[in-house]
Amino acid sequence: MSRNCSIVLHAHFPWVRHLEVPHCLEEDWFHSMVVEAYLPLLEMLFRLREEGVPFRLTLDLSPTLLAMLRDAALQRRTVTYLDRTISLCRDEIERGIITRNGDLATQYEARYSRLRSLYVDVWKCDLVRAYSDLRDTGHVELMASAATHGLLPLLMRVPESVQAQVRAGIRQYVQNFGRMPRGFWLPECAFAPVLSPILKREGIDWTIVEEHALTTSALADAAFPFVPGITEAGLHVFGRDQASSREVWDVDDGFAGDDRYRDFSSDMGDEAPMEYLREYLGGSERRQPTGIKYYRSARENDQRLKYDPALAKRAVEEHAMRFVLSRGAQLAALESSGIENPISVCAFDADLFGYWWYEGIDFLEQIFRQMARRQDMGLTTPGAYLATNREQTFPTAAPVSSSWGEGGYFEVWTDEENMWVQTELHERAEQLVRFVKLFMENRTEIPEESVKLHERAIQLMTRELLFVQSSDWPFLLLYDASHEYAENRVRSHLSRFDEILHLTMSGADLAKLEEGEPQGVPFSDLPWNLFESYS
Questions:
Q1: Do 339 and 430 fall into the same domain?
Q2: Strand pairing class (229-230; 236-240)
Q3: Are residues 339 and 488 in the same domain?
Q4: 131 shares its domain with 210
Q5: Looking at the whole model, is its pTM more than 0.85?
Q6: Res. 303 pLDDT band, cuts 50 70 90
């Protein structure tokens, strides 16, 4: 028998690129994710590999994130973002005489300079290739995901939408990594029973669902979620272990909330005088985070306490040890109860580590190092687990509809504030399905020039519909800070869809159809038949 732990990280960012301005807040969020989460994660993983520390990590890089990481213009702007931040750190070192934060500013300047060197000189700004390198040495298993992070259960009203999201996502994976995926990350960990045959039909072997999707179903097995189930369609389904998730990210008692860690909410970009920040902000009057933070979460007599890296390091070591010991005790108890080859799947959003929780990457590193010294359990990936236990008979599963959103289902995306988005995108999806069906039925009778026009129109409408189906927009509509941007994005994609449909129906030529088409946008070369009738 063997005891297994699997760390799974899901990295996603919606397609955001605004080359029409020097920089903007929404795009800077992406650059900050690269600098605070994706780059430090790579640095840590390569360090462990070079030291010969055995580890296994499962990682999903969403298709839109892959496109952004590979976009040459965004790569240049990430370097510019790093340069702006390094310059601000140097200003802060000088200003430290006044603020008494010069020592921390010096550490930040060294950190960002090191990350810039790795990004530009070592990985040539291509983080996708760097993650592929770790895949090729067996340290990382990469998953595919839906094209634009569409919430698949809510899209099933028009099943062709789910078909398109899955096929386009797999296509993007193959284009980036040169092989078919075996695992598929469900956006928002959202599952519905109808997804199982769709994923299996597209060549997917396994996916991950929330624990309660398995444990509350009619076919709940006593071993769930610590062994995968297999659906009637033949899809292996792993349950996300809630205990490990709560241990790390529980609002009240999770490790990340320890008051020895750096306070995420206290950023100098919110506190320094605007005239001091104006150059960093490019003349904008809109404040934004800089990544430079000087305080830890603790308060003393209602006063903030200065961040202490040495104190935070001790907290990381303590929490990593507790996490590993908890997994060891948990898996030993499961094995003692008769569960064969138990696995604890610990799945998280990747940006929780490094971005929201500054010390989170160090926490992961300590887990990998401590697990490497254990003899009673080991790190694995879902794909490797299935390969190792191919002779094992897994229980039949029929997971229920669920997500990892607040409440465990789909309430976040069907709130009365954002439900209009679902109505609009379903209407466009039905229009596109009808359009494609009519085109396919009458294609042989259409002149060749008109065939090309219709195929290109379908490609462009498919892309706009995929973009508007992203689960990010309904989520962001619930928050004042991002509401306007999210609504503008939704309405602009819907408007472009309508414009393309109108031009095509009115007999416009290809040149007119392509007029004003932005360059370098992903999914422009999609197969035109992704929205063919689903059966």
A1: no
A2: antiparallel
A3: no
A4: yes
A5: yes
A6: confident
